[in-house]
């Protein structure tokens, strides 16, 4: 029987759940990396047997990238992401861990805003110097959560092409293996800037970008204020927020088998970082954002917390599950693509990242 593994990274450790049915029966281990911030995790199934990655950090040991080949029973510290000696900076957190297109390639996105690449399955990482040395970097600001590359999207068929996003700097893209990077923000509004200057070349507060591998030139983006789609590999963007109860949000996720199906979790902007009317709901579009429908069967009516940018995901079953974790320490799952929901775990610390996979 195919099982499901669910990794939940929090501000006080990592929990790992497993289930055969994806409904009531989940078994959990944790906390792994007790009292360490876990902002990123990855279930890498490219080698057949799953390898788990976790980006954990503490004020005493600093940031670490750890791997497990036995579903979390044991962990090994990798070489981690570190700036070379000639760079006057130090990694504070690992915000993103993503498999590359080539075997053995793993990307890490960090705070401060940098991207690192491993060619040996995560054993060692090297700084993407072309991005770090970009002339825009000195003008990137830090959002309320810090300045970090939280999105890394390797092109599914072109290993030299990668799209990344940073808060607050916007989207950037390379098509030459990282030697050069270009901003890709045309059409994305920076609502916090003065009138007349809300569509800059860079400086947008992008929260998350997602794509389906079968349609690599189409990308979906959740901005600080706005939901967008690009049909030309991020060269231009158009708003697809009509029909949503709010344009603000952090997460955006694409269905693993349906390229036009996308999920978001809208929340209020400003100081009220919880869903409109405090009603928990995932919103789904089945036509690439032209129309939206609310999915809330089984979700709580009173929900005064946010869902962060990496705290929502799908698994890759034939009938995919959808999951989100909230800042109240609860994780909710839907084994039927969002039609119905149940709580899979509660009372964890502040959830920062959720990743799931069939194994």
From TrEMBL:
SUPFAM superfamilies: Oligoxyloglucan reducing end-specific cellobiohydrolase
GO BP, sorted A to Z: xyloglucan metabolic process
Signal peptide: none
Designated name of the protein: Exo-alpha-sialidase
């Amino acid at each position: 029987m195919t099982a499901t593994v669910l990794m939940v990274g929090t501000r006080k450790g990592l929990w790992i759940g497993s289930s055969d049915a994806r409904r009531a029966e989940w078994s959990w281990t944790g906390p792994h990396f007790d009292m360490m911030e876990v902002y990123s995790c990855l279930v890498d199934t490219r080698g057949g047997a799953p390898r788990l990655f976790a980006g954990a950090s503490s004020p005493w040991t600093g940031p670490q990238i750890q791997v497990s080949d036995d579903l979390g029973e044991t962990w090994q510290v990798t070489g981690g992401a570190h700036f070379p000696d000639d760079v006057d900076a130090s990694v504070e957190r690992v915000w993103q861990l993503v498999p590359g297109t080539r075997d053995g390639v793993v990307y890490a996105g960090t705070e401060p805003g940098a991207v690192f690449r491993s060619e040996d399955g995560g054993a060692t990482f090297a700084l993407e110097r072309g991005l770090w040395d970009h002339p825009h970097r000195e003008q990137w600001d830090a959002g309320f959560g810090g300045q970090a590359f939280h999105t890394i999207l390797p092109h599914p068929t072109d290993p030299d092409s990668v799209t990344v996003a940073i808060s607050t700097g916007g989207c950037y893209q390379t098509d030459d293996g990282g030697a050069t990077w270009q901003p890709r923000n045309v059409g994305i509004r920076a609502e916090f800037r003065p009138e007349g200057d809300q569509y800059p070349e860079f400086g947008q507060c992008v929260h998350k970008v997602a794509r389906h591998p079968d349609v690599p030139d189409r990308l979906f983006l959740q901005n600080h204020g706005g939901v967008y789609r690009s049909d030309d590999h991020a060269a231009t963007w158009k708003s697809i927020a009509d029909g949503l109860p709010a344009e603000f949000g952090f997460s955006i996720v694409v269905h693993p088998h349906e390229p036009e199906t996308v999920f978001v979790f809208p929340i209020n902007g400003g100081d009220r970082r919880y869903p409109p009317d405090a009603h928990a709901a995932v919103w789904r579009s089945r036509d690439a954002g032209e129309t939206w429908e609310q999915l809330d069967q089984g979700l709580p009516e009173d929900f005064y917390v946010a869902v962060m940018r990496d705290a929502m995901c799908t698994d890759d079953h034939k009938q995919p599950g959808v999951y989100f974790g909230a800042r109240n320490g609860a994780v909710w799952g839907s084994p039927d693509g969002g039609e119905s929901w149940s709580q899979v775990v509660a009372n964890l610390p502040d959830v920062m990242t959720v990743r799931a996979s069939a194994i």
